[in-house]
Fold these 2 entries.
Entry 1:
Amino acid sequence: MESGELSAVSLTQFYLDRIEAIDRNGPALNSIIEINPDALAIARSLDVEREQIGSRGPMHGIPVVLKANIDTADRMETTAGSLALKGHRPPQDAFIVQQLRAAGAVILGKANLSEWANFRSTHSSSGWSSIGGQTNNAYDPARNPCGSSSGSAVAVAASLTSVAIGTETNGSIVCPASVNGLVGIKPTLGLVSRSGIIPIAHSQDTAGPMARTVKDAAILLTAITGRDAADPLANHFPAAVPDFALNLSTDALRGARIGVWRGYSGVDNDPRVEVILANTIATLKSLGAEIVDPLEIDTDGMGEAARQVLYYEFKEDLKQYLIASNAPLRSLSEVIAFNEANRDLAMPLFGQERMLEAETKGPLTDPEYLQALADSKRISQNAINDALRTHRLDALIAPSRSPAWMTDHVNGDQSSGVSSSSLAAISGYASVTLPAGDIFGMPVGVSFIGGEFSDAALIRYAYALEQAGYQRQPPEISQ
């Protein structure tokens, strides 16, 4: 673009053509739920601006796909994949969308997702929504893309967009990024605004970038970061936020102390993942990192406490979003009623058990909620903080996820194996996943996990590992 060899229009048209050829036909990845009808017009205006005034920065003219739970005040809908919100067009952009437009991004479209960000049923198939159907893994369409940011991950992995935005409450960036061979950044809670995003739980929700390289993800994170007065965590926003793509160096791990966390879920289930972790540790050592292995981290009780928090917060947070965004339904009870009244279309494969459980919960003043919130944060944050302090660590590392499982609409997700995302998700601290290996061609990632607002340091470590370690293998998709 700087040299004039490529324009925003030509890049946008390339992706639109590729979506038509690959996403909706061919292997039918089904990652894009809606195309922005104004994408080419936006790209054209940005090309004119570049020619007449100059570039706004590295995002100028770059196509971005948004998860379909992120508000846009344009001709696209914001539905979280649910028929209950079909036709919903919010009155204003989410704060991060405002940031993207100001940076010169082309909003290319919206990505399919696990409906309601996978907070509808206990028997769901990740990547399925009643509006978008089933998204398929970019590396094997018979396998699951993980969720809930399924379409965002698959679209980037299959080169249907330059980069994408996902959201995470508990693994919804890390898991789909890992099983689709991507870099995914789960920011520290509060670094990225949550306003204008259909919520699950304010104590864990965050948006974050998904990209094919660490540098691309860092550029995108810089673009969406900013202090938003409408977000209750605005006062918690750091005083100075760096350009996350600056000062990336292959020497970043030299002298860094990295702790190996082996107490994640499924630790004994997949020795093949342990081989990938061992290879990663060897690369870290070759880059000058000091390795502390293993770490003893106590997370007993964390998951159950967080589960109760999500049920309570979903009911209240969703109500507040629906009212503020002038949605067609105004409460969780109305969503439940809609799904029941339209069962054949809205619930052909699985039910709404999580929604029904959330509806039984009381207000956020209930002692049960307050205790669960305190417990979940205390256990998760102490686990990370104590490990970092006791062993004088700069970060933890662990496998992100086992390879993708087969999609199964009869039994739902069969996602056994390694999973390390919950610790960072529940604590609200930062994590970065990047490709580290593959098993029979199916990607496996590793995650750097750090303390509060350690995002920039983790990105630097991920970049150094990326440059010296396993190189991402693109999926074998042809037009």
Entry 2:
Amino acid sequence: MRRAIIVDDEESSGEIIKYLIKQSNLLIEIVGQAASGDEGVRLIKELKPDIVYLDIKMPVYNGIEVMERINSSYTRSINFIVITAYSYFEYAQSSLRLGAKDILLKPIDPEQFKRAMERVMGYRYTDNQFLNDILEYINQNYSSEIELNKCAKEFHTSSNHISRMFKRHLGKNFIAYLNELRIKKAEKLLKDTELSIKEIAHKIGYNNLNYFYKNFKKLTGTTPKKFKENSG
């Protein structure tokens, strides 16, 4: 379960966000709410959320100023989702340079909200809450030794039941999903870090370097080395 706070001086916006989280079966818990930028900064430092829904136009500090203050004095990683009226959209775009993950226009469109949250969470949500719980577990633990049997025991169900859910809702099996997730993480690390290929393979859960190379080429069409060279 991801922890989130809402920083918006319009109470209705907060209620809409809570409704959309519940409607979409998102594994997100709202742990705090602030109506001004200064209160938002305080709550972020106090509650340490994973996600912050942030309005642009607010009393004391606006959304941009909130992000600037957090970026300059806070070391934990936060996913900012900026929510703004159309009249402030151009202004809100500067939030992307400060690290915001997405910008949503008011009134919030449910499908856009869901897609934004899928990008932040790292996986596609389904209409099956139990499967969403499993996907969240995989997303949080992909770097360790995750196996279908172990996952089944963790969720007190059978391997066959999980396999059927993956096939029905995602169109792929458990191992294929896990490999795709790991390779996506590898692509990001190859682009954004100076870690060696061996270090990256280990970091994303591959103890066998040859198996990592095999899956990387199968899913991307190239080798990790060439991918890194072309990303530079």
